[in-house]
Design a protein that fits this description.
Layout lengths: L14 H17 L16 H6 L1 H4 L3 E14 L2 E8 L2 E8 H4 L1 H9 L5 E10 L5 E12 L15 H6 L1 H7 L1 H23 L3 E2 L5 E2 L11 E4 L4 E5 L4 H10 L3 E9 L11 E10 L3 H20 L3 E4 L2 E4 L5 E4 H9 L9 H10 L11 H12 L8 E7 L8 E2 L2 E12 L2 E8 L4 H16 L10 H8 L5 E7 H9 L18
Parallel strand pairs: 3-5, 6-10, 14-15
Antiparallel strand pairs: 1-2, 1-4, 2-3, 4-5, 7-9, 8-9, 10-11, 11-19, 12-13, 15-17, 16-17, 17-18, 18-19
Length: 499
Amino acid sequence: MGENNINNQEQELDLNQLMKIRREKLAKLQEEGKNPFEITKFVTTHNSKQIKENYEDLEGKDVTIAGRLMAKRIMGKASFCHIQDGEGKIQSYVSINELGEESYKQFKEDDIGDIIGITGFVFKTKTGEISIHAKEVTLLSKSLRPLPEKFHGLKDTDLRYRQRYVDLIVNPEVKDTFKKRIQILKEVKNVLDEKGYLEVETPILNTIAGGAAARPFITHHNSLDIDMYLRIANELYLKRLIVGGFEKVYEMGRMFRNEGMDIKHNPEFTNIELYAAYQDYHDMMDITEEIISKVAQRVLGTTKITYQGTEIDLTPSWKRISMIDSIKETTGVDFNEIESDEQALKIAKDLNVELDELKLTRGYIISQIFEAKVEDTLVQPTFIYDYPVEVSPLTKRKPTDTRLTERFEVFIGGREYGNAYSELNDPIDQYERFKKQMEAREAGDEEANMMDEDFINALEYGMPPTGGLGIGIDRLVMLLTDSASIRDVLLFPTMKPQK
């Protein structure tokens, strides 16, 4: 049945007229004692998917389903309609002979978008479409606002994000993306649970914004009369638990960063961090591969995917290369031979890399050259390891070169998906690094870490050698659902209010 043959007369009317007509229909129903909003419950026996998958067992038997009226074709004393429930769409044949004159008249008055219940027997039409021959139709909820674009789909992406409820109605494939998101989150946890990690919960409201380089959201606690911060990371609390004797912990949850918005960033996002005592960043590389490849296999049935037209192979083992070697591989410059800040600055200028004026040391410059020249080239899964200490204030130094740290980030398709450390457990070194971060804040770096005296206090009790990892869940969902923007994988992305 063609869905373009629906209520053509509505195309001649503007939105206000359509809403006025629908409200008049509701008022008439209420006057007749048939107010659909007074119905509190409707018992169904099946959904559309169950009926289609079990047709041979259900043929000729009565079923009761409920859903949204998405298409309707009136043909005198008989009609066809499509209703959409949580599992898809199914057709129904509705006739005056089965319903009676009054009920059939009411069905003809029902609008596209109304929620209805149908009881009837299962059959196939002459064209072979599995359908329901309606014996009873019940209006369960009146749609007072017509669906957009005369039911041909909602195309305005801004409106889709603002009104996700409409997007889910008229673009059913969007629901598939979010069902897949739910599967991905579950499987990430399943992999960790299978490996003996414990899921924990830590505070979202913090007195210090720590655990990452980011600008926080600030709020105020009235009873305590203190400013507080929405967490930018849960790292420092999770490491306190390692101090306390938990040896493998993780937390998946919302983080909040008061920063720019683009196709990769939303002010609130989902992240997972995990920590394991007696492990290092090499172990974290292994578990990163395991999590992402297993989740892809379990959710998609393969580790070979296509993202925005590019084929990507998530099958372990992934390439592993140091940051300095990756720069050498891409530009020919070997920073193992560059000792001074002045030499590094000259190299950056020769490579036409624009630098942050607050970050002109050798370590900062290495990081900025990597971001400008290397990051976009990392299409297949790649671990970039051994980051400069300046950009890794919570990471253990590399014993063979104390200017570097035992840290890696994993890149796929030119984007960073995970960040991991051999965690710094020296309280004296950590205190000195916090002090340098505070100096950077005073110099104008709003993303620099704050001093966390209690975390230092925890480290002074002794934290075992520990590996830690953070993975951006929204980006992982984007990758595994082939979604171009983070807004496509967030049910309700942050939007500027309309006037």
